[in-house]
Amino acid sequence: MEVVRSVEMLSEPVVMNGVVVKGFGRGSKMLGIPTANLPESSLSQLPHDWRTGIYFGWATVGGKGPYKMVTSVGWNPYFANKTKTVEPHLLNEFKEDFYGAEIHIVMTGYLRPELNFDGLESLIAAIHDDIEVSSKALDQPNHRALRRLAHTSPGGVFGGFLGSSPVAVAVVGVAAAFAVSFVFLKRK
After folding, report:
1. Which residues are part of the catalytic machinery?
2. Would you state the pLDDT for residue 3?
3. Which ranges carry the Riboflavin kinase domain (predicted)?
């Protein structure tokens, strides 16, 4: 059976960074999906009207990458968090954790709002679905062209680095030209 899932490319990518901190200890242990959490202070790098939800894009950690990533930005309703978090999951296998390493992320697309789930299995299945859809979306040229932004400094939209350089203009042009929804098919 084919399932249609749409994703939204952000009209302007958002760059964040921070030092990887310990989260709630659920990613690897409970979910089997490790995250490289940004500190709570990194939330100030988001635009003031940023909506919570599940995003995807690119990340570098410890100067290596970029790697595909999917991230939750928000309250994680299933766990009833009292603290808003940014929890990137890098779509790559790593032998060690990243605590204390510098991480840069660039969010290029939006998957869905935060949701509550009936059980842990439903949450895990949704995360795996998000990972699959994100990976396919990031293979598209419009998202792939933005992976270099994972090496930039933070500061909100485009990390505040764009100015008027030719490279910046090209990146803006790519983002603006593809600020539409994409639909991906997958088999279940």
Report:
1. 87
2. 62
3. 9-139
Q: Which of 52, 36, 49, 46 is nearest to 13 (CA)?
A: 46
Other beta carbons less than 10 A from residue 82's beta carbon: 6
How far are the Cα atoms of 8, 41, 79, 80, 173 from residue 57, in angstroms, in the given order? 12, 20, 24, 25, 18
CA separation for the pair 156, 46 (Å, rounded)? 5
Do the beta carbons of residue 111 and residue 56 sit within 8 Å? yes
* Tokens 């939204």, located at residue: 8
Q: CA-to-CA distance for 8 and 161, rounded, in angstroms?
A: 23
- Name 136's Cβ contacts closer than 8 Å, sequence gap at least 6: 184, 186
Structure tokens at 27: 């990613």
Query: How is 117-137 classified by DSSP, letter by letter?
Result: -SSHHHHHHHHHHHHHHHHHH
pLDDT along the chain (188 residues), means of 10: 77 94 72 90 93 97 96 88 91 90 96 92 93 95 93 57 36 41 48
Give, in degrees to the nearest 5, the angle at Cα 110 between 108 and 114: 140
* Domains recognised in the chain with CATH numbers: 2-187 (2.40.30.30)
pTM reported for the whole predicted model: 0.81
DSSP H/E element including 16: strand 2-19
